[in-house]
Amino acid sequence: MAVTDDIVATYRSPRAVMRRLLQGERHEARALTYLIVALVVIYIAQWPGLSRAAHYAPEVPLVQRMVAAFLAVLAMIPAFYLFAAFGHLVARALGGQGDFFGARIALFWALLAVTPLMLLHGMVAGFIGPGVQATLVGVIVFAVFLWFWLSGLRASEFGGGE
Fold first, then answer.
1. Virtual torsion, Cα 9, 153, 97, 30, nearest 10 deg
2. Are 118 and 141 in contact (CB under 8 A)?
3. Mean pLDDT across 114-137
4. Longest alpha-carbon distance in the chain
5. What confidence score (pLDDT) does residue 90 get?
6. Exposed/middle/buried for 29, CB within 10 Å: 0-12, 13-18, 19+?
């Protein structure tokens, strides 16, 4: 299946998609690719909000804001590896039988699958600005991310029947 098809399918059945992803080749390049693509899209999703902020506060130019956002996104790579390891260790303490690779795939895939909503959040932040709408969309994005991650972690660690 194409990655975009898998992203759409994740919104219907995240555990089924995760089981299918875990049946594929088990190499770190695939996990890292999911993470990097997700972070690139998340970075792009920030552009409308950065543009709005630069318009209303021109003392910090847009290019400077974009470089800072890019560096911040890059700095998150090791943090996401730590989050994945932490998720695996918590699952193992609860009786999980998976491995660190499965935990990384679960987290990185959850990030990639939630990127369409991240793009929506970026559009709201850019066009409407900070406020109730942006907060509401942000909460929805976070809730969906947690749903995808925990469902994927369950499939990875416990087999996670549908």
1. 70
2. yes
3. 93
4. 54
5. 93
6. exposed
Using one digit for the tens of pLDDT, what is the confidence trace for 81-107? 999 999 999 999 998 888 899 999 999
Q: For residue 11, what pLDDT band results from cuts at 50, 70 and 90?
A: very high
Q: What is the pLDDT of residues 46-66, one digit of tens each?
A: 999 999 999 999 999 999 999
Can you give the residue ranges of every domain in the chain?
Answer: 3-157
User: Which tokens hold the place of 110?
Assistant: 């959850």
The candidate with the shortest Cα–Cα distance to 107, out of 123, 135, 121, 87, is 87
Radius of gyration of the chain (CA): 17
Which ranges constitute the DSSP H helices of the chain? 3-10, 14-22, 28-56, 62-93, 100-113, 115-127, 132-158
Average pLDDT over residues 69-81: 94
Q: Which two tokens mark 60? A: 């910090």
The one-character DSSP state at 161 is -
Q: What is the pLDDT of residue 27?
A: 87
Q: With beta carbons less than 8 A apart as the criterion, state whether 1 and 9 touch.
A: yes
| Rounded CA separation 118/33 (Å) | 18
What is the Cα–Cα distance from 23 to 16, expressed in whole angstroms? 11
